[in-house]
Specification:
Elements: E1 26-29, E2 36-38, E3 76-79, E4 82-85, E5 88-92, E6 100-105, E7 111-115, E8 120-124, E9 129-134, E10 142-147, E11 153-157, E12 162-166, E13 172-176, E14 184-189, E15 195-199, E16 204-208, E17 214-218, E18 226-231, E19 237-241, E20 245-249, E21 255-259, E22 267-272, E23 278-282, E24 287-291, E25 297-301, E26 309-314, E27 320-324, E28 329-333, E29 339-344, E30 352-357, E31 363-367, E32 372-376
Length: 378
Amino acid sequence: MMRIAVFSAASVFVAAMYGCSDAGHATPHDGSPDSSVSGKTEGGEKGADVGDLAAPDSDAFETDADAELDGSDDSVAVHVDATVTGAFTEWAVPTAAGGPWGIALGPDGAIWFTELVGGKIGRLTLAGALTEFPIPTAGSDPFSITTGPDGNLWFTEEYGGKIGRITPAGVMTEFDVPTAKPNLEGIAAGPDGNLWFTEADANKIGRITPMGAITELSIATPTSYPSYLVAGPDGNVWFTEAFGKIGFITPAGAITDYECPTPGSGPVGITVGPDGDLWFAEGAGHQIGRATTAGVITEFPLMPTLASPVAVAKGPGGDLWFTEQMGNQLVQVSTTGAVVKSYVIPTPNAFPGQIAVGPDGALWFAENIANKIGRLAP
């Protein structure tokens, strides 16, 4: 996979020579050529039978309600002093060069994040208490993280080839993905009560039940490089293809994708907007995109020219918020595609990653190179 050289391993932008044409063209795929099922392979726990792909596996969740917060023997809880600059607050990650990337609001009201380089999962309370939980697999490179339907946090191990689950108490479990070296990136809770994830190098979309049974489905588009995903308003799971498409997969496994108008645009982060459309970042095209559930795509350019938006979240006020890696700022965008306001991150070259809305209504984001967790209260 070719990536723009200036970006770290967390980036999924593609060179402009790879792209798309014929905007709005849909290519349906039934997802059947490469369907495989696997259960958990570590610790002796066998995954449940998947059977019907659309059926969730929602019982017998592991809660570990009585576990201590530092469920991992190596976890360390510290209080991190905040640095306040205007509307921004920043907390340094204790692990040197931890490289935070993914971020999510946990079911416990804390902010959870991945340390891409440090190989840890972090938890930060609004009061500044920060706990890090080491991942057992060496070289795991945890990428994205999300809250699952079972009340736990689920994350992808980009190079570890595993899906991880951590309880709010810190108890961690890993599940092997059947395909070798899949390059796992995005993960999101689906409308069927399961977790869906992308296998960028394997060109697949995966599904894992809360009990750990995994199903993989191949994307017919060659080297599409699926990146991020989100549960859509239409009952499907929508995802970006960094080589220039937006697609969705039904709970039954049928895949449809649409080509972006701009060749080489590099779609990455995606979310559902307050208007019910799918909004996404075009990292290589330096634009933001909007797709209807019918596959009609509109693009809006950003400034500066080399903004490189990577992640997006629906804000509490009805706008969209994007992180700009090269622009080093957070950008507020209305549902008309107009930039409402830009906020420059106090730390230069912070290289912001994923973004989430916290329980306080503020925007929380990972600063990959600055090795910080940031908060913006506009």
